[in-house]
Each structure stands twice: as structure tokens, then as C-alpha cells.
Design a protein that fits this description.
Layout lengths: L3 H15 L13 E3 L13 E8 L2 E6 L3 E5 H4 L12 E4 L3 E11 L7 E5 L2 E4 L2 H10 L5 E10 L3 H7 L4 E3 L3 H4 L7 H17 L6
Parallel strand pairs: 5-9
Antiparallel strand pairs: 1-2, 1-10, 2-3, 3-9, 4-5, 6-8, 6-9, 7-8
Helix pairs in contact: 1-6
Length: 204
Amino acid sequence: MMLLRPTVALLTAACCLTAQSRKPEDLAQGKILVTPRNPPDPHFADSVILLARYNESGAVGLMVNRRTEVPVSRVLKELQSAAKHSEPVYVGGPVELDTVMALARAPKTPDGADRVLGDIHLLMAKAALEKALGERDANNLHVYLGYCGWGPHQLENEMRLGGWFIFDRSVDLAFDSDPETLWTRMIARTEQQIVRLAFIPPGR
């Protein structure tokens, strides 16, 4: 048992260095959730999720690494301002795939939007989305179908089961230019750090 203690301590430190934490008390709006390999819930396998809302009522997140091949103009063909948007929509999560949300980058909070972190804002109202589509390009607006939702204490319980790494707030991760490889890159950094720290002699 004595021989196992340094390894456990190093693994814990590795999680906190590469990912901010795996502690439920460190959850907050704007944080990034990343699933480990072989997560408890296969619906979230290989997911990178931005917590767009987090409070005592629960949490709402959007998968920022699930880009599809379906253009925004096709999904939102009833909105005139969407006609010029040939960029693909994202799958925001497994909940209510007929629900449309968007993340917009703007120095000021757009009308009808809620600030998530930095210059990133969450749009849920149809009028706000239609206006944003007319004002912003693909680099500053991502459209999502569906979302990730958790009731009170549900996400905290998943954390205790080892379901997530919590990464610190990051505007760049939310709008990463290569979302298909985002989960692989983040997990690789975490695992490399774990291996590196595992070889550090105790006391150093």
C-alpha cells in the first residue's frame, strides 16, 4: 500500500495541472468539460463541451467539437439571413436535436443574448439568431442543433464517477479551428502529463 500512494498523488496532480480539476466544486459557467477515454456515458464519448450555463438549477452545455457536413443555410432555410451561410452546423448534444442555439463572438453582448465568457455569447431566441446571422460570418458564429443538459446535482454526481475533466475557461477552445481533433489533442496532453509526472521521484 505504501508503494501505491506516490502514484495516486502524482495522478491527482497531473489531472489538476493539465485539466484544472476533477472536483465538482470547480464547475462553473464558461468551463470546458472533456470526457476521458471510455466514459461512463457513451453518449458523450470523445466530447469537448463548453458550459454555457451553470447554476443551482443545473447546467447547459454545447459540444464544440461535433461539426457536421450540413450547411446552416439548409437547417435554417426559413431564416432569410441564413441563406449566405454555407458553413456547417454543429451537434450541440444529445438533448432536443430540433432545438437551435448559437455561440457568437462579439465585443458587446448582442440583443437577446447571454454572455458566457469573454466575448462569447449564447443565443437562443429566434430573433437574436436571425440578426446574428445577418451580421456575423462563420469565424464569429457557430450554430448548434441540440445541447447537453443536466438537472440539479446531476453533473456533480457524474464528476464524482470520473466522467469529466474540467479545463479552465477558454475562448480559443470554444472556437477552435480544427474541432474534429480537439478532443484527441486535449486528452493527449493530459495523458502525456500523467506519464511525465509518474516518473518524477517522490520528494522532488
